[in-house]
Amino acid sequence: MTKHTVGIVAGGGALPRLLAEAIQRAGHRCVVANLKGESVGLNAPQVDASTTVAVGALGKTLKFMAQEHVEEILLAGGVDKTRLFRTARPDLAALKLLKTLPDSGDDRMLRAVTTLFENEGFRVGAPVDWLPHQRAYEGRMVGRKLDAQRQEDFSFGLRIARAVGALEIGQTVVVRQGCIVAVEAVEGTDAMLRRAGQLAKRGAVVVKAIKPTQDYRLDMPTVGEGTLAVMADHGLRWLGLEVGCLILDRDTFLKRAKSSGISVFGLTHD
């Protein structure tokens, strides 16, 4: 196998770390551009090289990746979208990019960044390709069997979540007895779950979906133990994930779900 260098643009959460470990296990070199204020920080000896860049500092990111002879770039980890309005400091490269966009929808921005990287000679890869065994699969993954009401709510929630995903609003909804309790928007999944827990606790279902036009390189719907903690704290006990959603450290996640009394199911759409 030929060894090559993979670069990660690292936001928040555990995904960048899991990717770095997978890349190094495969025998490749891994370098990381940590997003300031977002990334937990991956540095030597965890990775071969690293730097810290502000959100929006595309020019510095490109320069770092070129200096490290990166062949493939992975965009991984969350970014607090509310901070984009407060603290982002786009550099010249980012400002030029923004001027070409009709709006600031998630997909348009990420696809534009991807095109910029590709035009500079980098291949932009899909994080899920490095973590093939960390995805949601069909059926009951852990917990109680579905009753008729929860089955209906899961089906309804998946349709709604895919619809709002197509509109670039969010990818997660909460449903109870056929009523849409909450829809994820710019506040993010955890804030939405806290709000939903105040409105409809036990019996409500949480559904996360993949956008119908999902580019698997960009903003892949992902859950981790943090989501379970918020659900448990707010009385939410049913989680449906469209098959293919990324589960961070799946085995540990499912054990945590079981111990928290949360049932997790992999859902498919018609």
Question: What does this entry look like structurally?
Answer:
The structure is a single chain. By secondary structure, the protein is an alpha/beta fold. Helix content is 37%, strand content 21%. It has helices at residues 15-25, 58-67, 81-84, 92-99, 106-119, 127-130, 148-166, 189-199, 225-233, 250-259, and strands at 5-10, 29-35, 49-53, 72-76, 123-124, 139-142, 172-176, 179-183, 205-208, 222-223, 238-242, 246-247, 263-267. It has a six-stranded mixed sheet with strand order 6-13-11-9-7-8, sandwiched between helices. A five-stranded parallel sheet has the order 3-2-1-4-5, sandwiched between helices. It has a two-stranded parallel sheet with strand order 10-12. Helix 8 runs parallel beside helix 9. It is elongated. The model has no long low-confidence stretch (mean pLDDT 88).
